[in-house]
Amino acid sequence: MKHSFVDRYSECDSPVHRLDPRAKLLTMVGAVIVIVLTPPRAYGSFFIYACTLIALFLLARVPLSFALKRVLLALPFIILVAASIPFIKEGEVAGSFRRGGWEVHVTYEGLILLWGILIKSSLSILCMAALSSTTRFDRMLKGLESLHCPRLFLMVLAFMYRYLFLLSDDLYRMLRARSSRGGIGGSLIFQIRTLAGMLGLLFIRAYERAERVYLAMCSRGFDGSIPARGGLAFRRADILFICCMTACFGIGRAAGSVW
Amino acid sequence: MNNSPVVQAESLNFSYPDGVRALENISFQVGKGETVGVIGPNGAGKSTLLLHLNGILRGEGTVRIMGMEVARGNMRRIRQAVGLVFQDPEDQLFTPSVYDDVAFGPLNMRIPLSEVDLRVKRALAMVGMEGYEARSAHHLSVGEKKKVSLATVLALEPEIIALDEPTSNLDPGSREEFIGCLKKLSATKIIATHDLELVLAVCGRVMLLSGGRIVADGGVRELLANRALMEAHRLRVPLSLERKRH
């Protein structure tokens, strides 16, 4: 089965794709921190951050629409959490309306805070999309490894990346088998019982798969310790990239106090 | 054929924890460079037998690989000597890239990184999968996955390769390619399969396993053409042998 992979475009080739994963990891995590620490009213800063990220996507030849879709995907969750802020935050009232016995106020401070949360989270997601769509997952793990991320944790990530799609395939096959035998019918309780059975089966299949994978690992000499790999080298382009990104985000941060 | 056996099994018995007796009094020898097919009905114990060759399962009785007894102390050497290719390549390929999968075995054997690189290249070249290092397994076709699975084992440079159903789920073209790969390998091969044409194409000897026992052991053509024996164990005489007789 084909999937729309979370890291589509990561196997393409461009100057950004060729960069050392560590350079991209560090700058993008740094960028997120700078974005989060920018005050919501620094409109100029956000403009420059956005321009920098768009330039990065263009340079990497990753379609902007793909990046924007990532943002749109996450936005509902953020709105769900943040939507109440303009009504709760105290401050200068921008407007109020009455429904029945309820009176609701919207404050300027609340609106500004909401804007801050939306723009910061959107830009942060863009940063992560830039990272994941220009870095192959195995290179990313290698980068994390040489940044001294615990190997056990990386192995868990690697397995998740490999088997998430297989598990979802399993689930889709089961759903399809259910549909072809009459689909969604019967009482609600019957449906819930079927679904619970399928989830249980999925768990058992995953468990059995895990056992077979472990046997396959043992067959190739796995003894519990995870050997180091290495094989990354910082080049001039990586240093140049870090310097450029630092400069762009630095200028952006400074621009906030001017505009 | 050299007369020093590389695999020796003596009165091997094994029962699964649920009490199912999977192997009963199995004894056999495989000489260096031999290609042996292990055939038999579903549940005959073929996969269980393969899992005994590198000590993943250990029943009563002894298994010796190149003269070394399969025991806890020499597991690393045993697993380097016996490469096991699992039936489902999704179980065998578990890392994010083909390179990492092929390098996994050699890295576990604590082989220096530069040598690991060479071995990965060589193993992929042997199965005709050069240039796939950066690909991830879920982007490969089943045929490609099977070939990479074989490469993950070849990177260990094993003396004995044990394959479980190597041609299952393959289209005829991929199957032919895979058989081509197998024929090029000089290592001793033990192949558990239902694909009797595969046995005819690559094996010099065949063992018929049924109900956990070795029922017959001999030359491929005589054994596979024995209709009474084959049908008694839920197998059929391969078509290519039938045709020649008519």
Could you please describe the fold and organization of this structure?
- The complex is a heterodimer of chains A (259) and B (246).
- Chain A is mainly alpha-helical.
- Helix content of chain A is 68%, strand content 5%.
- Chain A contains 9 helices and 2 strands, in the order ααααββααααα.
- In chain A, helix 2 packs antiparallel against helix 9 and helix 6 runs antiparallel to helix 7.
- The longest helix of chain A has 32 residues.
- Chain B has a single domain, classed as P-loop containing nucleotide triphosphate hydrolases (Rossmann fold), CATH 3.40.50.
- Chain B contains 11 helices and 10 strands.
- In chain B, strand 1 and strand 2 form a beta hairpin.
- Chains A and B meet through helix 6, helix 7 and helix 8 of A and helix 2, helix 3 and helix 4 of B.
Topology of this protein?
The complex is a heterodimer of chains A (259) and B (246).
Chain A: H1 21-36, H2 43-60, H3 64-82, H4 85-88, E1 93-99, E2 102-107, H5 108-132, H6 137-146, H7 151-180, H8 188-219, H9 236-258
Antiparallel strand pairs in A: 1-2
Helix pairs in contact in A: 1-5, 1-9, 2-5, 2-9, 3-5, 6-7, 7-8
Chain B: E1 5-15, E2 21-31, E3 35-39, H1 46-53, E4 60-65, E5 68-69, H2 75-81, E6 82-85, H3 89-92, H4 98-108, H5 113-126, H6 142-154, E7 160-164, H7 172-184, E8 188-192, H8 196-202, E9 205-210, E10 213-219, H9 220-224, H10 227-232, H11 239-245
Parallel strand pairs in B: 3-8, 3-9, 6-7, 7-8
Antiparallel strand pairs in B: 1-2, 1-4, 4-5, 9-10
In a nutshell, what does this entry contain?
The complex is a heterodimer of chains A (259) and B (246). By secondary structure, chain A is mostly helical.
